[in-house]
Amino acid sequence: MEKSVINQICASMDTFFETEKKIGNFIIHHPKEIVDMTVGELAKECQVSEASVSRFCKKIDMKGFHHLKISIAKEMVSQSEDDELSNHISVDDLEQSLKNILANKVAELTQTVSMMNSENLQDILKRINNAHNVLFAAVGNTVPVAMDGAYKLNQIGISAVSTPVWETQLAYSYNLSPDDVVIAISNSGESTGVINILEAAKQKKATTISITNSEKSTIAKISDYHITTATREKLFLDEYRFSRVSATMVIEVLYLFLTSMRKEAYDSIIQHESSIAFTKE
Fold it and tell me: In terms of C-beta density within 10 A (0-12 exposed, 13-18 middle, 19 or more buried), how is residue 255 classed?
């Protein structure tokens, strides 16, 4: 399944120029109107040139404005009226707002899972399952996802480490070996800190896996393997475009598959749960 137009725009927003952001913002907030508009009307609405609209379409892998409209129309048809996505959130309309949030989160997860390539995923699982050590690399708002990933892998008997201190991550990466794996998590895929860690890991010939919103990002390109996540946070919050939900979903998928692959996984989980049982009393 291809990435939807809305998801593609949300994922690419950090890479857009100001003119492109105007076009992208209008499209994700007015998808219905776009279907019936001409390229000139959209250009006028966004106060940009028609050439800018054409360049924007190509930047998000559309052949042109007509292709963009057809793709959006298909997406809208595939959604039932009950599941129609909206960006409306208000404490004055909690019931509908909850439905809107749920619909968009379901769309995020559905799109994320549908973009997973089976052959790629099998290779990733084998690499992690056979790893001597796994380093989760992340900075900023992706750190909680990385720490959750390390916790889950340790729970099923795979040695994993994560720390919110970037300098410690980098220092650790210089001690990796070809038997180790780095899992890098980034929103835009352009985090300088994470890129430095991946480059250090590659020098040590460790396997590198990345989880980002864009398969065209620097982090995705320099990684041995990449998993693309979908995000719709831009629909709700103008200055926030990364969803921990979809990234956490990827970690959950890896965890569940790895658990099923490892005969000793359940014993490890039971041992771990027993050792921390006193904290739950």
Answer: buried
Q: Output the pTM of the full model.
A: 0.76
Burial class (CB in 10 A: 0-12, 13-18, 19+), 92: exposed
Domain parsing of the chain, residue ranges: 1-78, 117-280
Residues 48 and 254 sit within 8 Å (Cβ to Cβ): no
Could you tell me which CATH class the domain 117-280 is placed in? alpha beta
Q: What are phi and psi of 149, to 5 degrees?
A: -60, -45
- How does residue 55 score in pLDDT terms, banded at 50, 70 and 90? very high
Cβ proximity of 233 and 218 under 8 Å = no
CB distance 267 to 273 below 8 Å = no
3-state secondary structure string across the chain: CCCCHHHHHHHHHHHCCHHHHHHHHHHHHCHHHHHCCCHHHHHHHHCCCHHHHHHHHHHCCCCCHHHHHHHHHHHHHHCCHHHCCCCCCCHHHHHHHHHHHHHHHHHHHHHHHHCCCHHHHHHHHHHHHCCCCEEEECCHHHHHHHHHHHHHHHHCCCCEECCCCHHHHHHHHCCCCCCCEEEEECCCCCCHHHHHHHHHHHHCCCEEEEEECCCCCHHHHHCCEEEECCCCHHHCCCCCCCCHHHHHHHHHHHHHHHHHHCCCHHHHHHHHHHHCHHHHC
Q: 161-209: per-residue pLDDT in tens?
A: 999 999 999 999 999 999 999 999 998 899 999 999 999 999 999 999 9
Select from 58, 25, 60 the least CA-distant residue to 214: 60
The CATH class given to the 1-78 domain equals: mainly alpha
